[in-house]
Amino acid sequence: MSATIRTRRLETDADLLAVAGRDGYLFLHDGHGLAGRGVAGRIHLPAPWPDSVELAARELEAMDVDDELDRPGSGVVAFASLPFERDVAAELVIPRVVVGRSRDGTRWITTVDDHDVEAEQPPVPASPEPSRHELLARQSPDSWTEAVAATAKLIRDGRLDKVVLARELTILTDVPIDRARVLARLARAFPSSMVYAVDGFVGASPELLVGRTGDVVRAQPMAGTTPRTGDPARDLQLAAALLASAKDRHEHQFTIDAVHDGLLPWCSYLDAGTEPEVFSVANVQHLASTVEGRLSQPAPSVLQLVASLHPTPAVGGHPTEDALERIAELEGIPRGPYAGPVGWVDGTGNGRFAVGLRGAEIDGDRARVLSGVGVVADSDPLAELAETRAKLRAILDALVSP
Predict the structure, then answer these.
(1) Distance between CA atoms of 226 and 218, rounded to whole angstroms?
(2) Burial of 319 (C-beta count, 10 Å sphere; 0-12/13-18/19+)
(3) I need a labelling partner for 107 at 20 to 30 A (CA). Which of 155, 204, 235, 374 fits?
């Protein structure tokens, strides 16, 4: 892409949700992050997309930038929602305008071939909210729980260790779904999650797949879930039971080991917490561990780290290839962006990618949503079904809140 790319400091504050609007790009976490709008260019990743990320990173690095801040997220930035399936093509998109807001309050704007644009878009008229909606399930609850039971038996027979099975719903509404309204609801309800929007895929993920800032790499894998009830005492009991659950701790350890092993070849130092913690969002609680380290030089782009990690056992299973075969057999259609990496990368290789969970593919008056659970040897199909319903509630409430 031949263009003039310029970053300058913003002296006024910026509402990243307003920057993204109804059709822009967003990665927002606890009030800071990046938002973009317009399309200056796209970088195609041929199939299989993980084999192409290094070329994309080099293409971004080679772009000429006039950057007065020179910090992660300034200069050229590309957003991406990468498919769960590794054997397909993908794209990165470079917005025409990107606005950033860091945790320390620094704000900036990057423009491509236009130095005089405003940070925020003019307010758009309110759109009508759906008054009716219909939910269509790809599999009936009975059929899905039968698949869970059959998979758990395979695991008990020693053929697999873990398989993540997802349920798919389609929501049909009587008016087009307003993506900006959905994002605003998610940001209010899940401030500790990463609220994202890339090419029609929107959501609020609690799980950081990987982030790179300079030579520091960080991931926060999650596996093991219990509901939240709204009763603080009861939620503490549920959290304690989650921490004590041999089934959930076993499932969690698969993911920690895979993330550690995926990052270790890139690192001069890497450490993972010895004990998981309970990470709470509005409707559920997860077992989470932090993996953090220092990258060897020359440091890889965050895109290369993404390609090394995806899919983790938290969204695929273990052993990986056997679990993916089982997923394809039972789910029947590609997951697309669900459970794939979603986030941003800049021209120096810094970036942050979440796991594409609690999201929806919005297309006019319909949205496709999925929710998965980790099936292990002693999984209870009805309990797993209840877990999918708890996870689905997050995005369903944002799509069709009464």
Answers:
(1) 25
(2) middle
(3) 204
Q: Looking at residue 108, what DSSP letter applies? A: E
Edge-first strand order for the sheet with 351-355 is 41-45, 90-94, 77-81, 341-346, 351-355, 208-213, 216-220, 291-295, 267-272
Residue partners of 307: CB distance under 8 A and separation at least 6: 49, 50, 51, 53
Residues whose CB falls within 8 Å of the CB of residue 67, separated by 6 or more in sequence, listed in order = 6, 7, 74, 75, 110
What is the CA angle 248-250-256, rounded to 5? 100
- Give the residue numbers marked as catalytic: 162, 207
* Sequence-ordered list of residues with C-beta below 8 angstroms from that of 71, at least 6 positions apart, any chain: 102, 106
Rg value, the chain, Cα: 21
> The tokens 């659950």 sit on which residue?
245
CB atoms under 10 Å from CB of 82, counted, come to 27
Task: Measure the CA dihedral 77/78/84/88, to 10°.
Answer: -140
pLDDT bracket for residue 115 (50, 70, 90)? low
pLDDT digits (tens, 9 = 90+) for 124-175: 677 888 889 999 999 999 999 999 999 999 999 998 999 999 999 999 999 9
Structure tokens at 33: 């992050």
Tokens representing 238? 């549920």
SS3 at position 48: coil
What CA–CA distance (Å, rounded) separates 382 from 362?
29
User: How much is the pLDDT for 230?
Assistant: 79
Mean pLDDT of 280-303: 91
Instruction: Please tell me the pTM assigned to this model.
Output: 0.95
Check whether 83 has a pLDDT greater than 70.
yes
Amino acid at 150: A
